[in-house]
Amino acid sequence: MTNPADLTLAQLRDALKAKDVSSLEATDAYLTRIEKAKALNAYVTVTADKARDMAKASDAKLAKGEGGPIEGVPLGIKDLFCTEDVLTTAGSHILDGFKPRYESTVTSQLWRDGGVMLGKLNMDEFAMGSSNETSFYGNVVNPWRREDGGNTDLTPGGSSGGSSASVAARLCAAATATDTGGSIRQPASLTNTVGVKPTYGRVSRWGVVAFASSLDQAGPIAQDVRDAAIMLKSMAGHDPKDSTSVDRPVPDYEAVLGQSLKGLKIGVPKEYRVDGMPDEIEKLWAQGIEWMKDAGCEIVDISLPMTKYALPVYYIVAPAEASSNLARYDGVKYGLRAKEYTDITSMYEETRAEGFGDEVKRRILIGTYVLSAGYYDAYYLRAQKVRKRIFDEFTDAFSKVDLILTPSAPSAAFGLGEKTNDPVQMYLNDVFTVTANLAGLPGASVPAGYDRQGLPLGLQLLAKPFDEETMFKGLFALEQAAGANKRPNEWWA
Amino acid sequence: MSIDKETVRKVAKLARIAEPEQRLEPLAKELSGILGWIEQLNEVDIEGVEAMASAVDVKLPMREDVLQDGPTGGGQPENVVANAPKTEDHFFVVPKVVE
């Protein structure tokens, strides 16, 4: 019999319903894999006992022919989602020992639908990073390696590096992730997985540790498009506890897979190119255009001239919001408190100096600076206005096209340590993804091919607000045409 | 615009992060690098453009002014202070703030 941990989420769901396999067997298969994959450092916390308890409860329901849409399916949870009585770190030292007394809306919906929690996944500290190198809990290593025999450890992308690595290495059936500037889509692109960032407001942010509240949105990283559709259906929905959550019915995303794309207009923005981008990515993009034509789509050349300003806008707006959100870590309410201090101000200052890593401090300082007296108009207000222009540009483009096709990231996975010396070089990883966050649009990365070193490359689709269904149709067509479903060699096991 | 050491000191104070003296100069360089790159926004014509604070076009929803059930409800001080480094009788304990 096949190892249940080799099945896709959809296959496992069906096997569980057919009682070909039990949730406990599947859960144990994943726990065994996780145990052997310590070299990847994908999990911060493994909740083995809880997982087995949840699996047994699922098996009892399945035995009676009951259970939710993903009953008994083992999942990994990014450590940004609060999980009741389970350590939640956000990849930071400052949340040492934090065990929330409540469950995030997203995870509670996954458990409602039958999901089993395997544990909490590593990530960049407070989701600030594109390589998973800012985590207090150490780098996550990409399961993929270059085919040059050099065994260089590569980044799984970030900030959801634990999510992308664990799905790529089959250390969970699927994972939750979050995306503030590209943190679902870039890691998915670097690991041959599917990453979906829904429309802002589609998924509740309640119980998700906040980074930049006007940009943060949760979504799945999954093995294939169908699995991502199943995950998103469980994660999405209106939540009165998040005032930006939008009250619209959640469609059955899985039902649209395989529907015809005939007559859809696909926009191709000429600005989605950067200096030094490998020609393989350019070629893959051209190939993607051909695949969409073959599927009956009409290709429309579009121009989004504001694209180059998206990252600079992001690096004002996101740090500004972060500096405000992260003011709550003061050594009083939860987590770390410094041992040495003289008065309350020095308690705050020493706690935050000790508890935050360099990248987080850098962004808090930038955010504090751009919001400070005398600089607010020049930086923050200007950035908000340029953001509006980016938004307007997309609104205009989407009056002419149904989807926009771009590369997901400007490079394949790079070596750990290769880009850590220059923050701006690291930031450029998100050049193709960050626009969707600023405009609130849904976007997703799908595996589309491999570079000459055998490393995965993704293509991105962007859609109109709340038109995830058309996006899923397009993703499925690209996935079928590309057939890029290789798995990495299990060098770590 | 480039940031000098004194500005870093001031901003770090505002952000309540203790930065050791020897970090101020390197930080000034790093932050100046980032802000220098951000400067390109000055090329964009923003005349008459409204500032965008949110990507969703919804009014802030109102709810009935009643006590909520569950984790956002009241009457659970033990949960509120459960994760605090130092507490006493459901209070957060901090160093003396009033002389």
What's the short story on this structure?
The complex is a heterodimer of chains A (493) and B (99). By secondary structure, chain A is α/β, with parallel strands linked by helices. Chain A contains 15 helices and eleven strands.
Strand order of the largest sheet of chain A: 1-3-2-4-6-5-10-11-9-7-8
Which segments of chain B are poorly predicted (pLDDT under 50) over 5 or more consecutive residues?
none
* Amino- and carboxy-terminal Cα gap of chain A: 20 Å
CATH topology of chain A: Amidase signature (AS) enzymes
Biggest sheet details of chain B: 2 strands, antiparallel
Low-confidence stretches of chain A: none
By helix and strand content of chain B, what is the structural category? mainly alpha
Helix content of chain B: 25-40%
Q: Which architecture of chain A per CATH?
A: Alpha-Beta Complex
Please give the oligomerization state of what you see: heterodimer
Strand order of the largest sheet of chain B: 1-2
Largest interface, counted by CB within 8 Å of the partner chain's CB: A-B, 69 and 51 residues
CATH class of chain A: Alpha Beta
Tally the helices of chain A: 15
SSE series of chain A: HHEHEHEHEHEEHEHEHHHHEHHEEH
The largest sheet of chain A, given as strand count, sense and whether it forms a barrel, is: 11 strands, mixed
Describe the structure.
Chain B: This is Aspartyl/glutamyl-tRNA(Asn/Gln) amidotransferase subunit C. Chain B: It catalyses: L-glutamyl-tRNA(Gln) + L-glutamine + ATP + H2O = L-glutaminyl-tRNA(Gln) + L-glutamate + ADP + phosphate + H(+); L-aspartyl-tRNA(Asn) + L-glutamine + ATP + H2O = L-asparaginyl-tRNA(Asn) + L-glutamate + ADP + phosphate + 2 H(+). Chain B: InterPro entries: Asp/Glu-ADT_sf_sub_c, GatC. The complex is a heterodimer of chains A (493) and B (99). Chain A is an alpha/beta fold and 493 residues long. Chain A has 15 helices and eleven strands. Chain A has an eleven-stranded mixed sheet, with helices on both faces. In chain A, helix 4 links the parallel strand 2 and strand 3. In chain A, helix 2 packs antiparallel against helix 3 and helix 5 packs parallel to helix 6 (185-191). The mean pLDDT of chain B is 93. Chain B contains three helices and two strands; from the N terminus they run αααββ. With 99 residues, chain B is mainly alpha-helical. Chain B has a domain at 5-42. Chain B has helices at residues 5-14, 21-38, 77-80, and strands spanning 87-88, 91-92. The relative contact order of chain B is 0.08. In chain B, helix 1 (5-14) packs across helix 2.
